[in-house]
């Protein structure tokens, strides 16, 4: 029979060369847009950290000042334990755990929002 090989004939490519770079590539390449992305994430994380530190300072940092300004509080007993010991030695640590948990939870939410923003730019 006929020993002519088959040849596939196709039209021009319908895909256009994309001039758009993905958000991840922008960040990896260190372009200005990538720096803007990273600056926004770092600014948000810094704002969160400063807010947590402010909350810690207002709640825990005020306790010694309160005991200094109101010396009568030093004589208050809660059962056999002085109030100052109870507040500064006992309740501070669970509060630090709560603040740490809150920070980690909000920080991860910031990172998820950032990843969603980068994904949106990729589309």
Question: Secondary-structure blueprint of this entry?
Answer:
Elements: H1 23-29, H2 32-59, H3 62-69, E1 77-78, E2 81-82, H4 83-122
Overall description:
The chain has a two-stranded antiparallel ribbon. A hairpin with a 2-residue loop joins strand 1 (77-78) and strand 2 (81-82). Helix 1 (23-29) packs across helix 2 (32-59). By secondary structure, the chain is mainly alpha-helical. It is built from 4 helices and 2 strands, in the order H-H-H-E-E-H.
Structure in a nutshell:
This protein is mainly α. 67% of the residues lie in helices and 3% in strands.
What are the salient characteristics of this protein?
123 residues; 4 helices; mainly alpha; two-stranded antiparallel ribbon; rod-shaped
Give the structural class.
Answer: mainly alpha
State Rg. Answer: 30 Å
Q: Order of helices and strands, N to C?
A: HHHEEH
Count of DSSP strands: 2
- On the 0-100 scale, what is the average pLDDT? 86
State the share of residues found in helices, binned by percent: 55-70%
Determine the number of helices (DSSP H or I, runs of at least 4 residues): 4
The percent range for strand residues is under 5%
Major sheet strand order = 1-2
What summary fits the major beta sheet?
Answer: 2 strands, antiparallel
Unreliable spans are none
The coarse silhouette is rod-shaped
How far apart are the termini? 52 Å
